[in-house]
Structure formats: C-alpha cells, structure tokens
Amino acid sequence: MQVRRFQWFFYLAAVATLILAAALVWLDQQLATAAAPQGIISLELAATPDKAHLILDSWGLEGIRYAIWSLLLDFPFLVSYVVLFVFLTRLIDSPVKHLLIGGFILAGLCDLVENLALLQILAGKLTLFHTQLAFWCASIKFGLLIFGWCYLLICGVFGLYLRFSQR
C-alpha cells in the first residue's frame, strides 16, 4: 500500500513539475529582453536596485504582468519539484541521501523567499534589501539544485552501470 502511495505522489509530482515548467518557460520567453536576456532569472540575479530597474523598464507594464504570473506559478512549481527530487533521492542508495533531501528542501525554501522578495520588487519596493535577498536566495537555490541534480545523475548512471555489468 505504501509503495503504491509513493508511486502515485511521484507521478503526480513529475507531471505537475513538467506542466508547470513548460508554462514557466513560455512565460519566461515573454520576458527576454536586452536588459534581461535570461528573463525572470535576470531579475532574480540583478542584485542591485539599478540593475533591477533597468530590467523592469525593459519589460514595461505587460512584461511585469508576465513576471507576476511567472512568480505565482512558481509557488506550486517549487512544491512539485521539491517533492519530485525528494522522491528521486529516496530511490538512491547513498550515505548522504538525507543531506541531499535537506538540500532540495532548502532550495525550495530559498525559492519561496526569493519569490516573495521579487513580488515586493514588482510591487514597487525596489530596495537594496529586496534585490540582495532575491539574489542570495536565487544563488543558493541554483547551487543546491545543480549539485543535487548532478549527484542524482551520477548515482543514476552508476546504478545503471552496476546493473548492466552484473549481467
């Protein structure tokens, strides 16, 4: 029974992550400008009010609406990707499994705080505090996610190697 529940949550998280990621990619394409070549990620990593102001000016009112929608969709997305990566991590046999799970959860919490800071920026509170908060939370989030993805990929490839080499 518990395995079936595990599979159901895993598939639900995977489907939700894929659907929300596709929607976020589409929204992000609407935000790519010369000042924000990476769309919303450019605002996440702006770090200063001056850089953030240039990005917001390049987006205009319509772009700011897209950015708000992107951030609103990012809330369920961060829940789905954290659940998905926690379930994937539970599948590996590693002495640092629990540390990796903690890293994915911390990445999700950083994403949450980052989104709240970005919503404040989009609401007109273009302060050093909010831009720095978004920058540091995004930097920590990306670092943890990239490390976690690489670790899972290495474990997956190594697991496949062991499986096929024993045949």
Structure notes:
With 167 residues, the protein is mainly alpha-helical. The chain has one domain (2-162). 83% of the residues lie in helices and 0% in strands. It contains 5 helices and no strands. The protein has helices at 2-29, 40-44, 49-90, 97-122, 128-165. The radius of gyration is 18 Å and the shape is elongated. The relative contact order is 0.12. The mean pLDDT is 94.
Tell me the span between the first and last alpha carbons: 31 Å
The DSSP helix count reads 5
Low-pLDDT segments, ≥5 res: none
Q: What is the number of strand segments?
A: 0
- Order of secondary-structure elements: HHHHH
**Mean pLDDT level:** 94
**Roughly what percent helix?**
over 70%
Structural class by SSE content: mainly alpha
Shape: elongated
Describe the largest sheet. none
- Rg over alpha carbons: 18 Å
Tally of structural domains: 1
Relative strand content: under 5%
Topology overview:
Layout: H1 2-29, H2 40-44, H3 49-90, H4 97-122, H5 128-165
Task: Note the main attributes of this structure.
elongated, mainly alpha, single chain, 5 helices, about 170 residues
Give a nutshell description of this structure.
The chain is mainly alpha-helical and 167 residues long. Helix content is 83%, strand content 0%. The mean pLDDT is 94.
